[in-house]
Amino acid sequence: MVVQAQEGRLTTSPVRILVATAVPAERDAVAGALPEPGGTPSPNPRDPEVRLPGVTLHRHGALDLLAAGVGPALAAASVSAALTAAALRGTPYGLVVSAGIAGGFAPAAPVGSLVLADEITAADLGAETSDGFLPVTELGFGTVTHRPPGSLVREIAAVTGAPAGTVLTVSTVTGTAARAAALRQAHPRALAEAMEGFGVAEAAAAHGVPVLEIRAVSNPVGPRDRGAWRIGAALAALTEAFGKLTPVLESWNPHDR
Ligand SMILES: O=C(O)c1cccc(C(=O)CC[C@H]2O[C@@H](n3cnc4c(=O)[nH]cnc43)[C@H](O)[C@@H]2O)c1
């Protein structure tokens, strides 16, 4: 909710929210918890879809859903296109949410559970050296972690029951016990790994928009075992989570960081 002064009066308008998933199945799982497509504000309030370069927005009330692609680079490019288009239309987003399925670190994040990021961290952005991995920040560049607004993380953790911790972004899905152990050692607060959160967060940060990441666990992080995937259960958990957290997102005041 945004409070504005208009003609001497205080008015409120809902914050516009962009939810970026990787693939259409995740986007549709989020949509399953929302009102029918459409809603305002929109250039054409009856138009439930808006085509942008490379991506299509699906509008559901205050939430616009975007299947932004797999991996941090495509997710960043797609979210950046949506943020720029909204800003140019004069209806900027007030919050970006990265949502989808993820690998969970046992025992904190079992398959079918939900996790919430209080830190969104790029786990493999840096340089390998004979003394180990150096994050890009130690090479003198950029950032490797974005932090969602604490008030929002606390409220969403309370309504969903999801634990809050670090959600890692990787460009390569972990497939061995050794890599899982190395990630765990480097990031003791890690609950899950996925492939888009950091890219979404970089795009949001470039526009000065806060970011959130919420993930439903489809598989354990560890030795590759496609038989252990439970994508249906994770998508169902995502729908259930958005049923609970959407009212919190819609009433969130961006000044409460
Ligand atoms: O082929 C494999 O062994 C394999 C294992 C896990 C995930 C994949 C994917 O291609 C899914 C990538 C997609 O889903 C998210 N995701 C889900 N689980 C994980 C994971 O364990 N590690 C990283 N990403 C995961 C991710 O955000 C992508 O959108 C293949």
From TrEMBL:
Top-level taxon of the source organism: Bacteria
Involved pathway(s): Quinol/quinone metabolism; menaquinone biosynthesis
One matching Pfam family: PNP_UDP_1
Region described as Disordered: spans on this chain: 31-50
EC number: 3.2.2.26
Enzyme class: hydrolase
Keywords assigned: Hydrolase, Menaquinone biosynthesis
Catalytic activity field: futalosine + H2O = dehypoxanthine futalosine + hypoxanthine
Name of the protein described by the UniProt record: Futalosine hydrolase
UniProt gene name: mqnB
